[in-house]
Structure formats: structure tokens, C-alpha cells
Amino acid sequence: MTSMINRAGLSIDERLATFLETQVLTPLGRDADAFWDGFAALLADFVPRNRALLAKRIELQSQIDDWHIDHSGKPHDAAAYRTFLENIGYLVPEPGDFQIGTKNVDPEIATMAGPQLVVPILNARFLLNAANARWGSLYDAFYGTDALDAPPAKAGGYDKARGDAVIARGREFLDAALPLVDQSWADLADKDDGTLQDESQWVGFTDKGLLFQNNGLHIEVVFDRNTPVGADDKAGIADIMLESALTTIADCEDSVAAVDAEDKLLAYTNWLGIIRGDLEESFEKGGKTLTRQLNGDKAYKTSAGEACSLSGRSLMFVRNVGHLMTNPAIRHADGDEIPEGIMDAVFTSAISTIDVEGHAKYGNSKAGSIYIVKPKMHGPEECAFTNDLFDAVEDLLGLPRHTIKVGVMDEERRTSANLGACIHAVKDRIVFINTGFLDRTGDEIHTSMQAGPMMRKGAMKGSDWLLAYEARNVAIGLKHGLSGVAQIGKGMWAAPDLMGQMMTDKIGHLRAGANTAWVPSPTAATLHALHYHQENVFEIQKSLPQPAGLDALLNIPLAENTNWPEDELREELDNNCQGLLGYVVRWVDAGVGCSKVPDINDVGLMEDRATLRISSQHIANWLLHGIVSEDQVMDSLNRMAAKVDAQNAGDSTYIPLIGNEDAPAFSAAKDLIFKGVEQPSGYTEPLLHHWRKVKKAG
Q1: Is 436 a known ligand-binding residue?
Q2: Per-residue CA distances from 351 to 105, 548, 688 (Å)
């Protein structure tokens, strides 16, 4: 039984209160009583506003539902629909011309372009791996993935043929990124040979090699004849180290299963370890116990012999939860749980203040900023609420105004349609906007749930609204001055085993104007970094068009013809149900919020909660409009449960779905579909949290 204690009229989990008081407030020299009094006052102000914003979501959705029901069976009138959205306040007037005013932004966000990782904050090992992914071995990335167009490595030790192909590909990269005068890097005899065409690319010496720069990213060419690779290399090159994941988001939201005080304490403890610089994780590998820690900085000397350093770690954001959920870790005097997003804002900012005030081993932000990504905000009112909340947190912690920076996830329809006004609401602290296909599609379906049956999920990727969404996000960000100040991001490459395809496809994100994009692993970050050497995003951004109008974005992705053959209906249901079950069973039974989940074709995909939102909402929509029946859905669920059980057969801790149809995991999957229409904004969190709590309670 959790022990609760009283602080300023709040009932707080004792472990959480002790953690904050002893591990955070004491090192900061803050008075605990004053903090809790201030926190209680902050809640008194912001909790009613939070509730009112959620009520506004429900009101707008109800009005939109009624409009579609009233116009059922009639041709869609786009002009009348847009006028209706304006009249109910769903669409707001565009703000006048403005430029964001964000100050004190680290170069990794403002002036450098490169890959970004998102990592579940509850997993310390993954968190350390991501934070340490600032630098990655290009040789390792090519040797171990299908990104290299050469026969795969043979089993049983080092495959020299594969290694030679890796080395040749590495030389090709160096020739393209760091061209030499009248020769190739393959011709070098040692590290003193060769002359750069552009001498300004040379940065200096490291202890083992030479440091260069291209398109703002660093490249270390490691010379070491005492290594097996360097000993056989003509020039003694042992590796090519690339600056890779410039930034990482430690995620408290979609990629974690955090439902109570125990889970939140782990999240905040891990964040403290990252910020303080002393997070460690030990694990067994190959019969040995290994301990992972944060990397130190990379030391080098300039040509003039001056000692300098580069960060050895990603610049860290923390993603708070959205406005919807509450958490039992802290309750009001009446027993009501407080909004989890407000708790995250206060606790993660308090922890990050250890960095801002100089108590960290390495330091995160050299500009003195705290970086928080805020997801799932609906429109400018909710962005303004977050801005005011961050003002209040700064006042509570005694921080200068706009110390806390914000990243706005453009993943809800009302935000996409009003993106300029959303940016304006946080214009002096915004450092990040990003698109996310899965969540955004889930909200697209839910918002227009009553309009009619949606097109097949795969067809969404070519729909008018999605193409407009991706293009407008970049164009609106550029219009309001994000280039050179903030990140304009694109979504995740979900298949960590398909690096060859990623290398072909993901460069499109740069050519669309994104100066960062999400990748699923440190290895993927190193490979994706090659794209940023190939293209100068900031130059591309200068020639992109102004944002297009709203008409295409508001084009509802309804199916033009719903007479799908039986095999296509079955295929669509199976695809949705298999992905849903494969993820839910890990979330509910194991508390794993993000992992590589095999899809229906047994391809491993990095899945998080957004996967459920789109899949469950799509099935719910087809059920509502009679495209499929409840019996058809249950048939698919049962068949796909057997497939998911088979895919997890090698896991000794796995609890099968078949034979446990009334257990929490299968029950959650059914609820997500059959109660999907009534879920707020189509979110999966309320049902997942309920069934995870049931599972944890035994």
C-alpha cells in the first residue's frame, strides 16, 4: 500500500515527496515548505483552467459530430464546413506577421541540423544509449546493417570481405564530405598525407586522429595502427566517428507505461541521473556484468595547439505528458488526482534547474535553458495555457522568464489548422515543432468520426490532408522565423532493421525542409547523419514556398468507394488488430511502452502508443459505419491473438492472449476498439491506464 503524506494541503506519495525534497530541492538550496506552498497555489490556479480546456475539446467535438450527422447523405460542402468550424471557434483568425523571439538556444537546436532520438525515460539503459549517441562509428553502422550494398557479414568472427566493403564505403563518404586536392581518401598513406580542398573544414587534432566539420557536423577520422582494422589499412584509419544524435527526447509520454507514483518516481529519478550526470545501469551480456555511464566530452586541440572540447552527449529534451491524464501520485484534499502534465512541468523543470544553476557533472544546456516537449495540445488556447504554466513554474523555482523552452508537437488537427496562432502563443519560448503521422491520423479519424467511413489506413499516406499537413508545418515554421532558432522536425523511421530503405527514403525529410528527424536507434542516427552531410538543410529552407491555404488540410479522408472485397476488409482488420494486440500485450502485461514489435509480416517496428490510436480509431470508424461487424472484428482479434502469441513464443515471461481472453491485455484491446468512438479525442491512455492498474493490482 502506497504511503501518502500531507504537504500544503496536498496528499503526496511519500517516496515522491522525499525524492523531490532531498534529491532536488536540498541541492538547489530551495526551502521545501515554500516550494509546496507555491506548488499548491499553482495547482489552485491551473487545474480549473486545465479542466475547462478539456471540456472545450468535448464541446467542439460534439458540435462537429452533430454537424456531420445533420449533413449525412449529402455531398460534402467544403466551404460550408469551413465556415462552420470558424463559427464554433475551432478555426481562429491567423495572427498578423510576427517572428518568434526565443533567446538563449543551444546550437544543437538553433544552428545545427542532425538526427534526433526519442527514448522511453523509464528504461535507464536505453536512456544512456541515446544520450551517448552524440557520436557513432560509421564503420560499425555499415558493418552491422543492410545500409551497405554488399553481401552480409559471415558468421564466426570478423568477415574481412565485409570489412573491406565498409572501408571502401567510408572512403566514399570522406571524398564527398571532405574532398581532397587531386586525390581520394583511398590514396592516403598516413594522416599527414593529403590537402583539403576547403581548409576551413579542418577543426584540429584528437588524441587518435583528425577532427573535421561539414555542414555544421563534426567528423573524426581515427588513425590507429594498433587496432586490427587500422593495422591493415593503408593510411592506418581505424574508424570514422560521426557526430550523430545532436538531440534526444527523454519521453514521459507515448513511449512509456507510467500509471502511478512508482512509475513516475522512476521517470523522475532517471531524468535526475541524466541531468546530474551520474546515471548508471548494469546489465549482463555474454556472461559478464557491464555498467553503462554517460560519456565524457571529446577533447581536441586546434591547429594553434589550444585545448578545446565537444560534447560527448546528446542535448536532452524531456517530453512531458499532455493535458488529458491525471495521476494518483499527488491528490487534492478532496481526493481528486492532479493533472499529470502539470506535475511533469513542475518536477522535470525542478530537476533541470540543477543543470541551469551549475550543479551537474557535465551540463546539458550551455545556454542556460530547460527544454520541454509538450505533446497533444489542441489549438492556440492550450498552447497559451502551457506558456502561462511555464511562466508560473519559472516563478515557483525562481528562474528567469523563458528559461523553460517548449517544443510543440503538431499532432492534433486543431493545432495543424491553427499552427501559426499556436506558435504565436509560445513565441518567446518555442524551440521545436514536429509532425507525427500516427497520432495526427488518429485525431483526423476521431474528429470526423461521424462524417463517414475512412479510406484504408495505408491510403492515408497519399491523402490530400496529410500532404498539406507535412508541407504546411515546415512552411509555417519558416514563415515565423524558426530557421536558425528552433527545430522543424519530421517523424520516426519505425523499422530499425531496414536501414537500407531508410537511407533511400529519409533524406526526403531534409529536402522538405526539416532540420531534424526522428530515428529509432543510435545506429540509425549515425546513418541518418550522412544525409545531413549530403544536404545543407538551412540552404534548402531559404527556397521553400510560403504555406498553402487550409482547404487541402481540411479535406476529410473519406473512402470514395466502400465496396471493398471481403479479402481486403479482412486484410485491413488483420493488419490493425495484429499491430494493436502486439503492442497492447506488452504495455498492459509488462509495462513496456515502446519496443520493437513484429508487424503482421514479422518486420520489427518501433511502436509506441500512437500506433494504437490510429489502429483502434480506424476499426471503430468502420464499425460505426457498418463496413465491418463486431463478429468480423472479434474473428480478426482471435486469429491475430494466435499470431501474436506465436511471435512471442520465445519469451519465457510472456502470458499468451489465447486462453486469457478475459485478462487485462485482451480486455484492453477489445475496449480500445469497441469503446473507441467515445474515447476523448480517440486517445488510448484512459483505457490503457485502467487495465495496466488492474494488471499491477494482480
Answers
A1: yes
A2: 19, 41, 28
Q: Catalytic residue, from 608, 609, 613, 671: name it.
A: 608
Cα distance from N-terminal residue to C-terminal residue, the chain: 13
Predicted confidence (pLDDT) per residue in 632-649, tens digit: 999 999 999 999 999 999
Same-domain status, 618 and 680: yes
Q: What is the DSSP string of 26-37?
A: HHHT--HHHHHH
Report if residue 72 sits inside a domain.
no
Provide CB contacts within 8 A for 16, sequence distance 6+. 261, 264, 265, 268, 329, 330
**For residues 385 and 389, what is the distance between their CA atoms, to the nearest angstrom?**
6
* Residue 438 marked ligand-binding: yes
Which residue's C-alpha cell is 506535475? Answer: 343
**Residue 608 catalytic?**
yes
pLDDT digits (tens, 9 = 90+) for 336-391: 999 999 999 999 999 999 999 999 999 999 999 999 999 999 999 999 999 999 99
Q: How far apart, in Å, are the Cα atoms of 77 and each of 67, 74, 81, 452, 625? A: 11, 8, 6, 14, 20
What pLDDT does residue 1 have? 56
pTM of the model: 0.98
Domain span at residue 617 reads: 566-696
Q: What mean pLDDT, rounded, does the chain reach?
A: 97
Judgement on whether residues 494 and 578 belong to the same structural domain of the protein = no
Residue 319 is a catalytic residue:
yes
439 assigned to a ligand binding site: yes
Confirm whether residue 520 is marked as ligand binding: yes
Select which of 319, 414, 586, 692 is catalytic. Answer: 319
Residue 591 scores a pLDDT above 60: yes
